[in-house]
Design goal:
It is a single chain. By secondary structure, this protein is an alpha/beta fold. It folds into three domains: 136 residues, Glutaredoxin, CATH 3.40.30.160; 104 residues, no CATH class; 37 residues. It has a five-stranded mixed β-sheet. Helix 2 links the parallel strand 2 and strand 3. Helix 7 crosses helix 8. The longest helix has 36 residues.
């Protein structure tokens, strides 16, 4: 059986348990519903659920302004308190939220998003963007890199995974020539953590590159042509008048030209500082030992006279 199908069945099973199994499994048992969204949550997440009700209309207005579309189906947003319960529904432990467009569903691991209200807001915006894109494309197959790239671009660079954005894996991959081919990221992202993070970074950077070079309207034009039934390659050419292969090649070249030796070495800054600090500590320790031995030797010499 196809892995994607198995994954969809697993998501359906766990969401069903959350929504309908009640307190017996510690499942969410409260609902707040208005004209914008249906929020499902456990008792201890009521303050966060109320915050989400305030967040949703604001970020929907922002996404409508950015994308030019409305979300005509009200989403269900499930808030999870126990991270272990959430992790049984996802493929990578780095994931903090996900969207299921077919069910118009968003699931959020609040154990890792409720620390910073701004982070929660941007995660909700990111997941809602996924629903907007899939609704606009009438649930046609969307390349994963395109889906994630647009969601990150529209949500101020925020992804739905945990990683240290200050240490870009993308720059290192560009410098060493180990970027992942975008077509290989069409059906899914690799599960190995560094490549998983790199896939997100590449997706975002490629969309930002297109917007910077051609403008937002042309980038969204790719989705328009896909909505009309064209595949990705034809949609890219119809909107940008550049073949996809040439576009990806030019993007790779632009990345490599921006990544110099200094940028590459800065990736190892933390390791360098840690190692340098360790060397200083060892040096100081050796000096103390030498001084102590010298003192003992001088004391012994004084006693001989």
């Amino acid at each position: 059986m196809d892995k994607q199908f198995n994954y969809a069945i697993r998501i359906t099973f766990f969401v069903f348990l959350m929504l309908f199994s009640g307190n017996a499994m510690g499942a969410p048992d409260h609902v707040i519903e208005d004209e914008n969204a249906r929020i499902v949550f456990p008792n201890n997440l009521e303050p966060i659920a109320e915050e989400v009700t305030r967040i949703v209309p604001r970020v929907e207005a922002e996404l409508q302004r950015i994308l030019g579309w409305e979300l005509y189906r009200k989403p269900t947003i499930v808030l999870i308190h126990e991270s272990q319960q959430f992790q049984r529904m996802v493929r990578s432990p780095l994931t903090v939220a996900f969207a299921e467009s077919g069910r118009n569903l968003i699931v959020v691991d609040c154990s890792r998003t409720n620390i910073d209200p701004l982070n929660l807001r941007n995660v909700i915006k990111h997941e809602l963007c996924h629903l907007y894109v899939h609704q606009y494309l009438k649930n046609r197959q969307v390349p994963r890199w395109l889906d994630e790239g647009i969601a990150q671009w529209a949500s101020d660079g925020i992804s739905d995974i945990v990683h240290n954005g200050k240490r870009s894996i993308l720059n290192k991959a560009a410098f060493t020539g180990k970027l992942l081919p975008l077509p290989s990221l069409s059906r899914g992202f690799p599960m190995r953590d560094p490549d998983f993070i790199l896939a997100y970074e590449e997706s975002k950077d490629f969309i930002v590159y297109i917007v910077g070079l051609f403008g937002k309207r042309k980038m969204l034009g790719i989705l328009h042509y896909m909505r009309e039934g064209e595949d990705l390659n034809n949609a890219v050419y119809s909107s940008l008048k550049v073949p996809f292969e040439a576009l990806e090649k030019n993007w790779r070249s632009s990345l490599q030209s921006k990544t110099n030796w200094f940028a590459h070495l800065s990736f190892y800054l933390y390791e360098f500082l840690f190692g340098f600090g360790a060397l200083i500590t060892i040096y100081a320790f050796i000096r103390v030992i030498i001084k102590k031995r010298r003192y003992l030797r001088e004391s012994d010499e004084d006693e001989t006279y």
